[in-house]
Design a protein that fits this description.
Blueprint: E1 8-13, E2 19-24, E3 29-34, E4 45-48, E5 51-54, H1 55-66, E6 68-74, E7 81-86, E8 93-98, E9 102-107, E10 113-118, E11 123-128, E12 134-139, E13 143-148, E14 153-159, E15 164-169, E16 175-180, E17 185-190, E18 196-202, H2 204-207
Antiparallel strand pairs: 1-2, 2-3, 3-6, 4-5, 7-8, 8-9, 9-10, 11-12, 12-13, 13-14, 15-16, 16-17, 17-18
Length: about 210
């Protein structure tokens, strides 16, 4: 696919499905544009290399190989880009989390970051709330930082005494989910002013 000079850590589609972004150990974020008109949409089932796959997925893969174009290569991070995510409804905005202890917001229509937010640790995961107002980023020290995108400032830093693995929002952006090294899913509520409190813990045995 080209674009990167080292291993790729993260990949994500934008909201209209026309761009694919990737983050890499080479400290760069690449944005590829895709020609959706060349993608055939079908629900047929295909057998390939012993695996049954949806044929629409296969054509998307072919689109990546034959109709993709490197649109932007964003530079600015000074360490590995470990995860990135797009704005849920704005097809041009994406955010990247890096080991250089920063979060950057990029606009795919330009070559420079719109905003850079310093954080307290090496960032390894990131999620943008569906309403577009808040970015949550987690670091290797199990600290979650909540960034108010509209105010362009960090609103909250929440430390945990256990290993935080994955983070995400619910569709209405008022519940925040995280998985941890104890085999639990923790559900938190975010109130006005990003007040943060635990409302439920799903134990591993309870969901098996």
């Amino acid at each position: 696919m080209g674009g990167h000079s080292s291993k790729i850590h993260s990949v994500d589609w934008n909201s209209d499905g026309r761009r694919l972004a990737s983050g890499s150990f080479d400290k760069c974020v690449c944005v590829f544009s895709l020609d959706r008109d060349k993608v055939v949409n079908t629900t047929c089932i295909s057998l390939m290399n012993g695996y049954v796959i949806n044929k629409s997925i296969w054509f998307w893969l072919m689109a990546l190989l034959f109709s993709q174009r490197l649109e932007h290569k964003f530079r600015g991070h000074t360490d590995s880009v470990d995860q990135l995510c797009w704005h849920a409804t704005h097809p041009d905005l994406l955010a990247s989390a890096s080991g250089d202890k920063t979060v950057r917001i990029w606009d795919s229509r330009s070559q420079k970051p719109l905003e850079t937010f310093p954080t307290k640790g090496e960032n390894i995961n990131i999620t943008w709330s569906p309403d577009g107002n808040t970015i949550a980023v987690g670091n290797k020290e199990d600290l979650i930082t909540f960034i108010d995108v509209r105010a362009k400032k960090i609103r909250l830093e929440q430390a945990f005494k256990f290993e935080v693995n994955e983070i995400c929002w619910n569709p209405t952006s008022d519940l925040f989910f995280l998985t941890n090294g104890l085999g639990c899913i923790c559900i938190h509520r975010l109130g006005i002013g990003l007040r943060f409190w635990l409302i439920k813990t799903l134990l591993k045995n309870a969901v098996e």
